[in-house]
Amino acid sequence: MTSAITTRAGYLCALLLGTTIMAAGAQAQPDMQQAQQRAQQMEQMRMQHDQQMQQQQMQMRQQEQQMNMQRDQQRQQMQQQFRQQDEQLRQQRFQMQQQQDQQRRQMMSGPQNW
Question: What is d(CA 35, CA 43) in angstroms, rounded to the nearest whole number?
Fold first, then answer.
């Protein structure tokens, strides 16, 4: 009788232990799934962040290129204007010099009615 009781107690212990192990295993599986899901979410967030950073860097490079192009265009326009103004001043100086030379000649060859 004692062996039957111990056998039954052992059987119950084994049954309880098995149930506990199964319950723990069943609990461990959702925990692992949650951990995998969290890892996937973290990876997705990291990838999104990296993608956003790359897009921002690309936008900044494009803006910098546009600013450089605008600056170069403005510089070229200013240089062109300077050349035109310089040419105009040369022409004016040449014309003034010709007028002065002509006036000098007229004064030197002026009327000699005496």
Answer: 12
* CA–CA separation, 54 and 108 (whole Å): 80
> CA torsion sign, 26 to 31 to 32 to 38?
positive
Find the length of the chain. 114
Q: What is the pLDDT of residues 52-77, one digit of tens each?
A: 999 999 999 999 999 999 999 999 99
Three-state SS string over the chain comes to CHHHHHHHHHHHHHHHHHHHHHHHHHHHHHHHHHHHHHHHHHHHHHHHHHHHHHHHHHHHHHHHHHHHHHHHHHHHHHHHHHHHHHHHHHHHHHHHHHHHHHHHHHHHCCCCCC
